[in-house]
Design brief:
The protein is α+β, with helices and mostly antiparallel strands. The chain is built from three helices and three strands, in the order βββααα. The chain has one domain.
Length: 71
């Protein structure tokens, strides 16, 4: 299984949105602040500006979560 992310990762102040690509199939995935705090190591108490600034890093840390919940 090949896993990657595509397109831009966005943070609207409430939800992190991006695209997970598994075996060439793109799926739009989202994570709210509670999910980020619970599942992205190092961001258990991240503020809005931190999530915005580090959104790509956070998305990468959440990829195992997205794969588990979208397969």
């Amino acid at each position: 299984m090949s896993v990657g992310c595509g397109r831009t990762v966005e943070w609207d102040g409430k939800v992190l949105t991006g695209w997970l690509v598994v075996n060439g199939v793109a799926t739009k995935v989202t994570a709210d602040r509670a999910t980020i705090h619970a599942c992205a190591a190092g961001f258990s108490d991240a503020l809005t500006w931190e999530i915005d600034r580090f959104r790509t890093e956070i998305f990468e840390k959440l990829m195992p979560f997205f794969v588990r919940h979208n397969s």
